[in-house]
Amino acid sequence: MHTPTITVAPATDTRTHRQKMLTFAGVLLAMFLGSLDQTIVSTALPRIVADLHGLDRFTWVATAYLVASTALVPIYGKLADMYSRRKIEVTAVIIFLIGSMLCGLAGEFGSLPLLGDGMNQLVIFRAIQGFGGAGLFAMAFIIIADLFPPAERGRYQGFTGAVFGTSSVLGPFLGGFLTDQGSGWIPGVAGWRLVFYVNLPLGALALWFILTQMPALRPRTKPKPFDYLSALLLMTGLVPLVMALQLNKAEYGWTSPVTLGLFGVAVASLMAFVFRSLRHENPILDFGLFRNDVFRTANGALFLLGGAFLGIIIFQPLFMVNVLGESATRAGVSLIPLSMGVVMGSLLAGQMVSRFGHYKRWMLGGLVVLLGGLSLLATMPTTIGYYQILGYLLLCGIGLGPTMPLYTLAIQNAIEPRLMGQATSACQFFRQIGGAITASVLGTVLTLTLAQSIPVGAAPAVVPVKQAVVSEGPALPAAAATGAASPVVRAAFSKAISRVYLVNIVLVVGGLLVTLLVPELPLRKSNAEAPPASE
């Protein structure tokens, strides 16, 4: 099947609008699948654990995907600067689909040599799925940068924020629906397996768009040899770092030997990675990028803001269930206004930036709105109404929306096209690492506050509850989880979640202050133009 072959950022763009839009659709669909799989498994986990008899390893089903999808993002960015971006995207989609199929088959054939029982298989296959998912995230922004110049890119990158916000909230609902209702759809196939199999037809459609419509997008110069040692050092640094953040802190505290050992390995490996990168002719991440004012400040802001969204979708359902006594279903539905707000804010900011050419004012405006929403959430009384909270969440979503596409746009506008892959993947990486750290810290704040606020004899037996995306939730009172929380437990959760939001507010204020330092540069009207000076 013939597709056009062009170089990255060509001086004369011969691609038709139809070709660009079909490529854009395929990339967004692939990104949607990668983002969806961060959350879709959370509501299927109880059934998975029951079928595969893996209660002792259930947290690793989510953690394996997160570790793999975070650690490989910078490597995909580097590969995108060296080879055909279509080949990299196709490879990522294929790895993701293979991982999805294997996840659906986990345990079907009993214990297997080397892989172990069904639960072990699922954890391993989720890591494979994450290896592909990392490329779906990183390549989406890189390819969109190739398709559209910065002056037009905002309106299209706004859709990426909409996709992320929608998939994050849709995932738990879809996972629960397929698990509960899908068991009879395919004879002999449990409903939870459809959580993984649903990726196959959608992924195949994305693959068709990419193969038939996407140009090769090859780099202009012949690539230098890939630095495999740097890649190894980066992986051995990021994997233990994310694992240490994901450990259940009730079992492995911040000062436990396991946690400290993982942090020690991570620090040593990452220091070696930096040392190697500063001396290698073709580093995974060109540290010269940090001399660019926009790159440095925008990524600093993303690191601080990475957990703002996660802090809401992880902890707000706890307030709904344990303070208001709502059902788990209504708690999940309450996040829909948050998703709608993210979609609205992301699309509106993208359109306005493309029309008027100023991105910084929309970044700052969004953060001010987000701070207003978080302040309302932090001061919620135990008697607050359900629908009043929905309004607060809508406000938070509108404030979060501009943060999804605009920081990446600002960075892409300020760097050389030959470094587009590295710079763009760095945005995704700092956002994800910041989110993982923030979620872990907020979980600790919640747990410590509950331990201080609930007397030993006041709470019934506890059950672990898995919350959403990246972090294992605290042990929750069983009666509270069913809507029968005592006044003491309700007050404790209200106080704990208020503190969580206060910490989140501090981080968002920090992100706003750093955003004030981001230079406002004119948006380039062509990918062939040199980036404007950041000084």
Description:
69% of the residues lie in helices and 2% in strands. It is mainly α. Strands 1-2 form a two-stranded antiparallel ribbon. The chain starts with 16 loop residues before the first helix and ends in a 20-residue tail after the last helix. Mean pLDDT is 86; it is low at 1-12 and 459-484.
Annotate the secondary structure layout.
Blueprint: H1 17-36, H2 45-52, H3 59-71, H4 73-82, H5 85-105, H6 118-147, H7 150-181, H8 191-197, H9 199-213, H10 228-246, H11 257-279, H12 293-322, H13 328-333, H14 336-356, H15 360-378, H16 386-400, H17 403-414, H18 420-453, E1 462-467, E2 471-477, H19 478-481, H20 487-515
Features:
535 residues, mainly alpha, two-stranded antiparallel ribbon, 20 helices, globular, disordered N terminus
